[in-house]
Design brief:
Blueprint: E1 11-13, E2 22-24, E3 31-35, H1 47-63, E4 67-71, H2 75-87, E5 92-96, H3 100-106, E6 113-116, H4 118-121, H5 124-137, E7 141-146, H6 152-159, H7 165-182, E8 188-193, H8 197-208, E9 216-217, H9 225-241, E10 247-249, H10 256-269, E11 278-281, H11 292-304, E12 311-314, H12 321-324, E13 330-335, E14 338-343, E15 346-352, H13 356-365
Parallel strand pairs: 3-4, 3-10, 4-5, 5-6, 6-7, 7-8, 9-10, 11-12, 12-13
Antiparallel strand pairs: 1-2, 13-14, 14-15
Helix pairs in contact: 2-3, 3-5, 6-7, 7-8, 8-9, 9-10
Length: 367
């Protein structure tokens, strides 16, 4: 029997000051998020540092990122976050735990959204203060639920094996959503994250069958690059193919760039995002005549940031390069200190390997 999941409503981020307005949910494109990996204490008055942060945010945006979340653990970070928001055109999310006053402080700037975990914010009055503040400013909220913040009664049921952790996550989110509904506030997104692929799937399926609330999906603490990519791909592809998930974040013990690129590729392979540069590269072998890995390290982010709908092949040898990459709009391979540039399988330039990058760039620009 096919499962039925509700079509979600829309939630809107940004649109204030210089911030780009985007929507999440409904028929909106699935957005890609990442999280800033460094603390921002003391950044408030450092114009050079703020400019550098915004430059990196813009680079992430070119790669395909739509939203960046910042940890805001103290008041100094909140003040710095406000200044970063003022300088960025991308919606930025303040990640708040424990102290609701940090959320209220962040609302003094053009924040894109507030993320709270009601399970550790405290009393209903504090949650209500955040909701009312967001309502006044037209700022949405993400309710973040994880297994570490389950209510005591649900946690006990899980420990006694009378309820699965996935159902407990869904029920916790449902309880928090009910509070927001009682406050007549519908501009919120829910996330239920587990470190287990199956628990992540089960929790989101359970919730999506009951509510029309947009879902942010992710596998928390997914691990280092390879482990995290595998877990996220398995969970996301399953949920996205069921129509579940309105915004995603691939959580990796790696760079924000790798999180964004992984999310982008998952969306593409699931048919949820089209266009842009598609990369094809060989894994290397004993026939290696061209340093594929080094070339990809130099070119990957630049290529993925281009606004061209093309396929690029980077192959390790001239024996298989043009043949295996013949479908590519442009490709490069090499041997014996030489590199060849080919288009649709036909060699168009042969150059010394030291000139390969410059010539490749010239041919790329001509497409």
């Amino acid at each position: 029997m096919n499962k039925e999941f509700k079509k979600t409503r829309k939630v809107f981020l940004g649109g204030n000051a210089n911030i780009k307005r985007i929507s999440v949910g409904g028929d909106s494109p699935i957005t890609i998020q990442t999280m800033w990996k460094e603390g921002i204490v003391g950044v408030k008055d450092d114009k050079e540092k703020i400019a550098q942060i915004v430059k990196e945010i813009n680079s992430l945006q070119l790669l395909g990122c739509d939203i960046v979340r910042f940890a805001v653990p103290d008041m100094q970070s909140a003040e710095s976050f406000i200044e970063i928001c003022k300088a960025s055109s991308m919606p930025l999310v303040a990640d708040i735990h424990f102290d609701y006053r940090l959320a209220l402080k962040c609302l003094e700037g053009p924040v894109g959204a507030i993320r709270i975990n009601p399970g550790n914010i405290g009393s209903r009055e504090r949650v209500e203060a955040v909701v009312n503040g967001c309502r006044d400013k037209g700022v949405p909220i993400r309710i973040g639920v994880n297994s570490g913040s389950l209510p005591q009664d649900l946690s006990k049921l899980v420990q006694e094996e009378k309820m699965s952790r996935a159902v407990a996550l869904s029920e916790t989110a449902a309880r928090e959503a009910a509070v927001f509904d009682q406050l007549n506030f519908d501009q919120f997104v829910v996330s239920m994250k587990a470190s287990s692929v199956q628990e992540t799937i089960d929790a989101n399926e359970n919730f999506a069958s009951r509510f029309d609330i947009p879902l942010h999906i992710g596998v928390t603490e997914a691990g280092p690059l390879i482990t995290g990519v595998v877990k996220s791909t398995l969970a996301f592809s399953h949920l996205l193919n069921e129509g579940i998930g309105n915004t995603i974040r691939v959580s990796l013990s790696s760079t924000p760039e790798n999180e964004v690129i992984t999310g982008l590729e998952i969306l593409r392979e699931c048919g949820k995002r089209e266009g842009g540069v598609k990369l094809v590269s060989c894994p290397r072998c004993g026939r290696l005549g061209f340093d594929v890995h080094a070339f990809m390290d130099r070119w990957q982010n630049k290529l993925l940031s281009m606004k061209k709908d093309i396929t690029v092949a980077v192959m390790g040898c001239v024996v298989n390069g043009p043949g295996e990459g013949k479908h590519a709009d442009i490709g490069i391979a090499g041997a014996g200190g030489k590199a060849i540039i080919f288009k649709k399988g036909v060699t168009v330039r042969t150059v010394d390997e030291k000139d390969a990058d410059n010539v490749f760039e010239e041919e790329l620009a001509s497409l």
